[in-house]
Specification:
A: 647 residues, alpha/beta, seven-stranded mixed sheet, 32 strands, B: 699 residues, Beta_Casp (chain B), nucleus (chain B), Beta-Casp domain-containing protein (chain B)
Chain lengths: 647, 699
């Protein structure tokens, strides 16, 4: 089985995020965004690729929305109300409330015929199931989803999705560094087959934000001191609050009295959401909510249309961002021609918008439409205050999660290619950056489920200590390795789970311990062992012995006999490297192999023909089981060598 | 699995406490304090009262125990209690009675279901050797912290009055002293069997509380945590209060649901998520609230009995769980309470509400202010508590823990609770203590005061009771279920009206059976006291065990095997063998066993396996070898052999020996339980082994 990943949007582009993932029989759509740069059908993902005949309820198990930005949720009302999807939709609690506000923005922006009405949105939002951070939601028997804090905007989440043994994470947009009002993305170390991550800033590495903040404050302060007006076009939630906290602090510190305005009720209302959704904000904001809520702005006032041309300096936060239309455009038209004024653009602006034009170079004239041209004499300040992670953050996340595979979306093609290369070369993880409407297939994980007996589990969890001695050659150089004293005896815990998997007809497979197995069958064990009795020439032994023990003259004396085994032991220890050789006085044991002195006159296992001088040969009897077959014959050959050896 | 109930608790403020042994881990459920026992202490005399007392002069807190006094007190033992019988000392606090008999260092996990179940926790965490992992929901931990901090700060008043405590055993706990106390009081101290004396502790400090909170790992609803790889623990909303929870514990061998006091359709908190507890193997039913309502309440003072106790209908369907009659009933109570309050206010009496249940408190605030509005009474509402301000602010920033109706307020842009507006409109005033300067400036009577503590021994309520106890127009609202007579003892004679009111604090008796039918467990554990009340028909799909205090119940295991997941790469290495006689396929397997996420996993491990040839060889054989077959197989291999029946080497008669001469010399000694192969070289030995293998079953 494979995981199939169909990228319907945000493939090698920023806009209309939409990825459909099929795994183990489930099909999940992540995000359902709209492309702001287009006005025709291209603004929506090509839903016909999910189901040719438009039977989306059958084709999709559920939809998961990461956050309420239009490029992630914009096409959802169209999909549910116009295309007719009626299955479950999961998103964090805040997302539904913001969509209606966005619709207004859209209508204002172009005044064109609406793709969906506000009734559509209300109906659509009724289908939404709210998910809380870290809440584990069992969508059905097999499919589980869990949201993690993404830090990108209030209510933004990354989604962990698991079907059977396969698991993926879809990040949506995220930020790996905390800012003034939001925390950094947080996720557990998970076992993943696939990570689908955004890559807006695939190659950018940002420095500390303090420099950028200071620069922003300086520009604003300079402008208002000179009597100018500052326009900050933002969306309702996100940068507006971040910058406003920053300005509030600064106003307090510098004791400034110049008014700060919020353009519409929308932003004021957004601030109220913030006040109540403290749990989505940064640690610092959380800690201080009871004494002073950071979103109770003292200096902020409501702005009225009539104040656009009023004299005197001010700071205005106006929606929508990117100066894509609506009120921010209206204000822009009035303020742009004056050199005293300042336009501050926080973060990314979508292609085709005025914001984008202002950011790419400093135009002196801007075409509002076919007939109108606007002189732009005001100052432009670009702010890199994006709540997206930078390249380092993406790399950190990929490294932290160490998935088997990575897919990049939501970025610009050349930059994505660079990042893709880095992920493969630095982390050794396969990575893809599919274009829109392309499908990527990756293998998925599976496990076989069986039962396991208690005895098996217990025996497998019991420590199995393995004692090994340092061999004598290593002794001199390795015992004092790195100034550390290595002990003579090394103990390793080599616990291994060994058992028998039994598959009976009509019953589920079960693992049992070896000891249980025969009981289960009701059979008696039949032990097959090997035996071998062989002589060792005592002449040779005598030679060696006489050098050691001079007092002994009788070869068959008791003391003589007892000294042969130790000699074999020394021999074995020298020649058999790595074996765990134990000497028990009566016998030498290596794993299941044992050797001892054979005192019988006629041993049945004495298969080998005795040497001619029978009285001078000493017999040794060995026994072993099949597991140590190879080892046993090796030892025998070592010992027999002694017989004809060079000693 | 073993289950021990340490305490059945008593009411909303003293939840039950249990210990569960599962998967080799010991889990403690809740660690409450029995704050109702505080009533045996005398409240701190207020300035006003102290003057009065001096005239009586026999109840000085520091009075020595002279002989006159002793005889005087002796006479009193049989008589009804009066205020002088109460203990004048810095109060101690009573933890769960059998908990102190356990070695807390052996506890592995503590699960806290409610803020009330947390109040005794600092006593555990300050013990050296306590190392358990503590889990509670974020909100429970926060509310529990506030309650403990409030307790510590209210307790300070005693410390200031009596001076610092000695480290020794307090005087009142000594045997001679206790013998002089009236029997009712002595029973509170010692318990019925005298075992409870060890449960008394001097109160923890603010530092202990802080230290305790640092050890708590907070959770959200349905967040998964894995303890030691084996237990997957999740908290699900119980509906009793904001943030309270029931637990789901999944282990490799059984899945357990722990049900604490739960409310199906609460008016403020998120509702009881019983769906998440469906299909577990075992249900530990620990909602003992239905027992409390059954015990006769002393309603000498109450002129309102709100206990509705419908007859049990056994055929209730699962749907009935969610009927809203409870909800409406609770609303009725609040309405009634408000109308009583309004009556008192109209008679220019004040209303004192020492109710510490957060949900009731918040709803009462909303109701009372609304009813004041409608009856155009301009009366200030005061909330006096050291943590009130933070508590009220906190309730407004936790929408995700509230019921649907409250959450919808968020999306329509309203505050979650009305108290935000009330404070803004100067209708509600919040003060930390009775002597805060702002309060003194603001104070107006008649008024409505919400303040702790419900036991009437601690906090601002003591001062206000002393002030108003003589006013027949004033009203005291008490929660029923406690010994009101004892509680009001120090304030006698009471002219003040007392309204006792019970609030829903758990699953009602008729709903227990339908709930269990919905949950479909295989085993249910119920308290012994419910044996008579909840009768099961014979066709029960599940077996029922009854537990009682301090008796360990052993629950049989349901499965004889655990679940185990085998990695695919390991599964591909299997070499299956078909058994001749049974319909069975078997394979040897070897790998590394891991325990993670409540499951066992078998991976192929890092070690390279031994050479394949040795792997394919069966290591274990069984059956009886047949000589004829053996000889024919050997001859097919080109081995000639002859059989020598008879006496074996070691005298075992049944053993027979097969001699091999061609191609080389070998010997096969076949006995009853085993075979020995002896051959001149490796090849022949291994050929003979193969022959043996083929006539035996092996693995």
């Amino acid at each position: 089985m494979a995981i199939e990943c169909l990228v319907l949007g945000a493939g090698q582009q920023v806009g209309k995020s939409c990825v459909v993932v099929s795994m183990n029989g489930k099909r999940i759509m992540f995000d359902c965004g709209m492309d702001m740069a287009y006005h025709d059908h291209r603004r929506h993902p090509d839903f016909s690729r999910i189901s040719e005949y438009g039977d989306f309820d059958k084709a999709l198990t559920c939809i998961v929305i990461t956050h309420f930005h239009l490029d992630h949720i914009g096409a959802l009302p169209y999909f549910t109300e116009v295309c007719g999807y009626r299955g479950p939709i999961y998103m964090t609690a805040l997302a539904p409330s913001m969509l209606e506000d966005y619709r207004k923005v859209m209508v204002e922006r172009r005044g064109e015929e609406e793709q969906f009405t506000s009734e559509h949105i209300v109906e659509c939002m009724k289908k939404v199931i709210a998910v809380d951070v870290k809440q584990t939601v069992q969508v059905d028997k097999d499919l589980m989803i869990r949201a993690y804090y993404a830090g990108h905007v209030l209510g933004a989440a990354m989604f962990y999705t698991k079907v059977g043994d396969s698991a993926i994470v879809y990040t949506g947009d995220y930020n790996m560094t905390p800012d003034r009002h939001l925390g950094a993305a947080q996720i557990d170390r998970l076992q993943l087959d696939l990570l689908i991550t955004e890559s807006t800033y695939a190659t950018t590495i940002r420095d500390s934000k303090y420099g950028r903040e200071a620069e922003f404050l300086k520009a604003v302060h300079k402008c208002v001191l000179g009597g100018g007006k500052v326009l900050i076009p933002t969306f309702a939630l996100g940068r507006a609050q971040e910058l406003c906290i920053l300005l509030e602090d600064y106003w307090e510190r510098m004791n400034l009295k110049i008014p700060i305005y919020f353009s519409s009720g929308l932003t004021m209302q957004a601030n109220m959401y913030y006040k109540m959704l403290i749990s989505w904000t940064s640690q610092k904001v959380k800690e201080t909510y009871s004494t002073r809520n950071a979103f109770d702005f003292k200096h902020v006032l409501n702005f009225d249309r009539s104040m656009i041309s009023a004299p005197g300096p001010c700071v205005l936060f106006a929606t929508p961002g990117w100066i894509s239309g609506g009120f921010s455009l209206e204000v822009f038209k009035q303020w742009a021609p004056s050199e005293m004024n300042l336009i501050t653009l926080p973060g990314y602006c979508a292609a085709g918008t005025i914001g984008h034009k202002l950011m790419s170079g400093k135009p002196s004239k801007i075409d509002l439409d076919k007939d109108t041209q606007l002189d732009v004499r005001c100052q432009i300040h670009q702010l890199s205050f994006s709540p997206h992670t930078d390249a380092k953050g993406i790399m950190d996340l990929v490294k932290f999660l160490s998935p088997k595979h990575v897919i990049l979306v939501h970025g610009e093609k050349p930059k994505m290619a660079t990042l893709k290369g880095r992920i493969y070369s630095e982390l050794g993880i396969r990575c893809d950056d599919p274009a829109n409407n392309e499908t990527v297939c990756i293998p998925s994980t599976h496990h076989v489920e069986v039962g396991a007996s208690n005895t098996f589990i217990r025996s497998s969890l019991n420590p199995n200590f393995n004692f090994s001695k340092m061999s004598s050659e290593d002794e001199s150089d390795s015992r004092l390795k790195d100034g550390k004293f290595m002990p003579w005896l090394q103990v390793k815990d080599e616990r291994a789970a060994e058992g028998i998997l039994v598959e009976e007809k009509g019953k589920r497979a079960k693992i049992v311990h070896l000891d249980e197995f025969l009981l289960m069958l009701g059979e008696k064990k039949h032990d097959i062992r090997f035996a071998y009795c062989f002589p060792i020439n005592t002449d040779n032994l005598e030679d060696t012995k006489s050098t050691d023990v001079s007092s002994s003259s009788n070869a068959l004396s008791v003391s003589g006999r007892s000294s042969w085994l130790p000699m074999l032991y020394i021999k074995l220890s020298d020649e058999l490297s790595g074996g765990n050789i134990q000497y028990f006085g009566e016998q030498i044991q290596v794993e299941s192999f044992s050797v001892s002195l054979c005192l019988k006159d006629r041993c049945p296992y004495r298969i080998v023909d005795s040497p001619p001088n029978k009285c001078e040969a000493v017999f040794f009897c060995c026994a072993w089981s099949i597991a140590d077959e190879k080892l046993a014959w090796k030892i025998i050959s070592i010992l027999e060598n002694r017989n004809y050896g060079t000693l | 699995m073993k289950f021990t109930c340490l305490s059945k608790g008593g009411g909303f403020h003293f939840p039950p406490c249990h210990v569960l042994n599962v998967c080799g881990f010991r889990i403690l459920f809740d660690c409450p304090l029995d704050l109702s026992a505080l009533t045996i202490f005398s409240p701190v005399p207020t300035g006003y009262r102290a003057v009065v007392d001096e005239k009586d002069s026999d109840c000085q807190p520091y009075s020595t125990l002279d002989s006159d006094c002793v005889t005087w007190k002796r006479q009193k033992i049989g008589k009804p209690l009066d205020a002088n019988d109460l203990i004048c000392a810095v109060p101690w606090y009573k933890i769960v009675k059998y908990l102190h008999l356990w070695n807390v260092s052996f506890i592995d996990v503590v699960l806290i279901s409610s803020p009330m179940g947390m109040l005794g926790l600092p006593f555990l965490t300050r013990i050296k050797g306590f190392s358990a992992k503590i889990y509670a929901t974020e909100v429970t931990a926060r509310l529990g912290q506030l309650m403990m901090e409030d307790l510590v700060s209210m307790h300070m008043e005693f410390r200031q009055f009596y001076g610092p405590e000695g480290s020794t055993f307090p005087r009142w706990m000594e045997e001679e002293e206790l013998d002089l106390r009236p029997s009712a009081l002595r029973e509170v101290v010692l318990g019925k069997d005298g075992a409870e004396l060890g449960g008394w502790m001097p109160l923890y400090s603010a530092a202990d509380v802080k230290h305790c909170l640092q050890k708590v790992q907070t959770l959200r609803y349905a967040e998964e945590v894995c303890y030691n790889g084996k237990l997957v623990i999740k908290a699900f909303s119980s509906g009793l209060e904001i943030g309270t929870c029931n637990w789901s514990i999944n282990g490799p061998k059984r899945d357990i649901a722990f049900i604490s006091s739960s409310i199906f359709v609460p008016a403020h908190a998120m509702s009881f998520d019983y769906h998440a507890l469906q299909g577990k193997d075992i249900v530990l039913y620990s909602d003992l609230s239905s027992l409390d309502t059954m015990e006769g309440i002393e309603d000498g003072y109450s002129f309102l009995t709100t206990d509705s106790f419908s007859t049990l209908s056994w055929e209730e369907s699962a749907q009935s769980l969610l009927n809203t009659s409870e909800h409406l009933e609770e609303r009725e109570k609040l309405y009634y309470l408000c109308s009583c309050a309004a009556d008192s206010l109209k008679a220019s009496g004040s209303v004192l509400i020492p109710i510490n249940r957060l949900g009731t408190f918040i709803q009462l605030l909303e109701q009372i202010s609304a009813s004041l509005e409608s009856s155009s009474l301009k009366v200030p509402i005061y909330v006096i508590s050291s943590v009130a301000e933070e508590l009220l602010a906190y309730t407004n920033v936790i929408p995700e823990w509230l019921c649907k109706e409250r959450q919808e307020k968020l999306f329509s842009g309203e505050p979650l609770f009305a108290h935000v507006e009330l404070i803004k409109d100067n209708k509600l005033h919040v003060f930390p203590t009775v002597h805060s300067p702002k309060l003194l400036i603001n104070w107006q009577e008649p008024c409505i005061v919400f303040c702790p503590h419900w036991c009437l021994r601690l906090g601002p309520v003591v001062h206000l009771l002393h002030r108003w106890s003589g006013d027949p127009n004033s009203l005291l609202v008490l929660e029923s279920g406690h010994d009101a007579q004892l509680a009001l003892l120090p304030f006698q004679p009471m002219e003040m009206k007392v309204l006792q009111c019970s609030f829903l604090s758990g699953i009602k008796l008729p709903k227990i059976l339908p709930l269990l039918n919905v949950l479909q467990p295989k085993i249910t554990l119920l308290p012994e006291d419910l044996r008579q009340k909840v009768r099961f028909t014979n066709v029960n799909p599940f077996s029922v065990f009854h537990y009682s205090e301090n008796k360990t119940l052993i629950i049989p295991s349901l499965k004889d095997s655990s679940e185990l997941e085998i990695a695919t790469d390991l599964a591909f290495q299997f070499q299956w063998r078909n058994l001749k006689h049974e319909n069975m396929n078997i394979t040897r397997l070897k790998g590394e066993l891991h325990v993670a996420h409540g499951k066992h996993w078998l991976h192929s491990g890092n070690k390279p396996s031994k050479s394949n040839s040795s792997k394919s060889r069966p290591l274990l054989h069984w059956g009886t070898p047949d000589l004829e077959t053996l000889l024919s197989i050997l001859s097919k291999m080109g081995i000639n052999a002859s059989v020598e029946q008879g006496v074996g080497v070691e005298g075992s008669k049944k053993a027979c020996i097969v001699h091999v001469h061609d191609p080389k010399k070998a010997l096969i000694e076949i006995g009853d339980t085993g075979t020995v192969i002896s051959a001149v070289d490796e090849n022949l030995a291994s050929l003979i082994f193969e022959a043996m293998d083929s006539i035996l079953d092996g693995i």
